[in-house]
Amino acid sequence: MSTRILIVEDEEPLTLLLRYNLEAEGFEVDAVARGDEADLRLREQVPDLVLLDWMVPGLSGIELCRRIRARRETERLPVIMLTARGEEGDRVRGLATGADDYIVKPFSVPELLARVRALLRRAKPAHVAHLLVAGDIELDRVSHRVRREGRELHLGPTEFKLLEFLMQSPGRVFSREQLLDGVWGHDVYIDERTVDVHIGRLRKAINRARSPDPIRTVRGSGYSFDEMFAGAL
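User: That's the sequence. What structure does it adopt?
Assistant: Structure tokens below.
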């Protein structure tokens, strides 16, 4: 069963960006531009997660979040609040109202996707696959083990997260900046060359003699998990 995400956002370009990236991750997406419309939609059908803008017309995101938490049907519904209000007091208010997470605009889309998956893992673990499989590589998110051709590989924690991040979107090219945001987080300030170092370590750990390299370097753009490898039997 697909995971449904409701976007409550009145900025159409941002809604289109979120929809495109969430659907690319396999999520079913619905979107409304007004808080009162979202309130009605939630009474008709409860999604698996809500991305909620603080400032939407009709009914504010804060008030909608209060209503979500007040109803038995939605009291445990995961909510990520999106807002341009980044002051500490606003963050505290948003979380105190009942939001599970709070992301300040502008934000990194890979980081948002990572937070969506993390929140779904906690709230609805059955909706997030524990095992990623591509070609002859298996990555187990629960045991934090990686196998290739049935043989266990030994990866460091950063290399594990890097491989997991790339395997989630086969064929998609990520820039070094996107990988830094998605794997290390946007609050960590490190040089982009660090990505190259860890990509090298990852390749050394997963590749053996005559084994095809699933990590593709795209000159001038970044890195990708080769979709041809992902589809190989």
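The mean pLDDT is 85.
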